[in-house]
Design goal:
By secondary structure, the protein is α/β, with parallel strands linked by helices. It is 33% helix and 23% strand.
């Protein structure tokens, strides 16, 4: 019979008993090794496992809480591994959470497929990872660099065939109860910087192995490539809006109050608001405000951006401002246009401050994306979950690329596409206040929405990855 060995961190005595008893219900289970005082995320630990394991499959359990396998779950995983020839497998599961009433309940925790472009180091595989031992040993043997935190990431990037079993095969205890809007900033938290340096190095080496790495050679924006463009103003602030009567005036006024040595305007694309937003905008008496209502009723945020960028009154530079946010001062627009001129770039990304509705700073504070470097930023952009804000674009190029007509990830897709050829400029001064309030659409998402968002961004990365591989192969 095919066997499977388990390796897991040290648990309390009772938790070990519960976990081992659960695993031992499968006849394929041959034993467990407790990894006391070492981390599964270190290369040294993976090497010791590779030397110790002898059965056909190896299971790594990554949590320090008790695990409960479902009925015949291990047998099911092994069966699918044999049928598919998978190198690595992971499965949907239940999470056990304590409710407000103090009662623990199981909640379904579905996962998503791991695509070629799923390069995020925080990809959710769950806590039960099963590997074909031959593939595991081959991957570990190929590791030439020792990592303290990124070894599991390095390992899974070396797996050729990863299979997602969309069946609920085990239960684990929830150990991170934060909202989705809080988790999304982990990779820019300064206290995680050392970890992120490792993850970037691992991802970069992976891109080199598969032929997707791009060296720091950039095209300069050249107006001659894009035909004749006559712009009525130098810069346009673009504000897509849908039912933001509480906040949109703050956004518009922060844009109109900019002090610049050039002409600018503000294009608000009102996506058929029904809460009084239209009427409020009509009351603002300023010739620089262009209020656009789409003819079409199928536009997402990206579609609203496309409408603004192709508008005859759009300026040479199109600058982002969300309808519930504000610029941090009257010099934001000037700094952005100066950056375009000084850094010879086709896109500029600034720094923002997280605040509450009343503009008081809140954690995680200033988001400056200092993980970005000119040498490797566009490669690392395939790993991280965002590029920062505010974002601004050179309009002639943007009119040829356009944004996906979506309301999530459209700006990230555009940033990846631009960075494939052009330099992205950075500003590390705070330019923008990102307001968190009960009306935010992304403050606390359920697992289905988080999965849908992550699946789409991974799809964007996959398409970009394939484009870069093709580009590199022609070089």
């Amino acid at each position: 019979m095919t066997g499977i060995e388990c390796f897991m961190p040290s648990l309390s005595g009772e938790d070990i008993s519960v976990t081992v008893e659960s695993l031992s219900r499968s006849a394929a289970f041959t034993g467990v090794t407790i990894l006391s005082g070492v981390s599964l995320r270190s290369t040294e630990t993976l090497r010791s496992i590779a030397e110790a394991v002898h059965d056909k499959f190896v299971l790594l359990y990554t949590k320090d809480k008790p695990l409960e396998m479902g009925m015949f779950a291990l047998d099911r995983i092994i069966s699918i591994a044999e049928d598919t020839g998978a190198d690595m497998l992971y499965a949907d599961h239940y999470t056990v959470k304590e409710g407000e009433d103090g009662v623990e309940r199981k909640h379904k925790h579905p996962l998503i497929d791991c695509q070629k472009g799923a390069l995020r180091d925080d990809f959710d595989f769950g806590s039960v990872l099963v590997f074909r031992t031959r593939s595991f040993k081959r991957a570990v043997k190929a590791m030439t660099q020792d990592y303290e935190w990124g070894a599991l990431y390095d390992l899974r990037l070396r797996m050729k065939k990863i299979v997602h079993i969309n069946e609920f095969l085990y239960s684990e205890i929830e150990t991170d109860g934060r909202k989705s809007g809080e988790k999304q900033f982990d990779y820019v938290d300064p206290k995680n910087r050392a970890v992120q340096i490792e993850m970037e190095a691992i991802c970069t080496e992976h891109l080199k192995r598969i032929g997707a790495y791009l060296p720091p050679c950039f095209k300069d924006p050249d107006p001659r490539e894009f035909g004749d463009h006559e712009f009525p103003v130098t810069a346009t602030v673009v504000i897509p809006v849908l039912n933001r009567v509480r906040t949109v005036k703050d956004a518009v006024m922060s844009a109109l109050n900019q002090k610049c040595d050039f002409r600018f305007n503000v294009i608000v694309v009102d996506n058929h608001s029904s809460d009084g937003t239209k009427e409020l905008l009509d009351e603002i008496d300023d010739a620089r405000l262009v209020h656009v209502i789409p003819v079409k009723h199928d536009l997402g945020i990206g579609g609203c951006w496309n409408l603004a960028v192709h508008h005859e009154l759009c300026g040479e530079y199109a600058v982002q401002l969300d309808s519930d946010d504000v610029y941090s001062g009257p010099d934001t627009l000037q700094k952005i246009v100066d950056a375009f001129r000084q850094q010879k770039c086709a896109m500029v990304v600034g720094t923002y401050q997280m605040t509450d509705f009343d503009m008081n700073p809140i954690p995680p504070g200033i988001i400056d994306h200092r993980e970005w470097t000119e040498d490797n930023g566009r490669n690392n952009a395939l790993r991280v979950n965002g590029l920062g804000a505010p974002r601004a674009f050179w309009t002639p190029l943007l009119r040829t690329i356009n944004l996906p007509n979506t309301s999530y990830g459209e700006d990230y897709a555009l940033g990846l596409r631009i960075s494939r050829e052009y330099r992205i400029g950075r500003i590390y001064d705070v330019l923008y206040c990102c307001r968190r309030w009960d009306g935010n659409s992304d403050a606390a998402l359920d697992i289905e929405k988080v999965n849908a968002n992550n699946l789409y961004k991974d799809r964007i990365r996959t398409w970009e990855l394939e484009a870069r591989i093709r580009l590199s192969s022609r070089a």
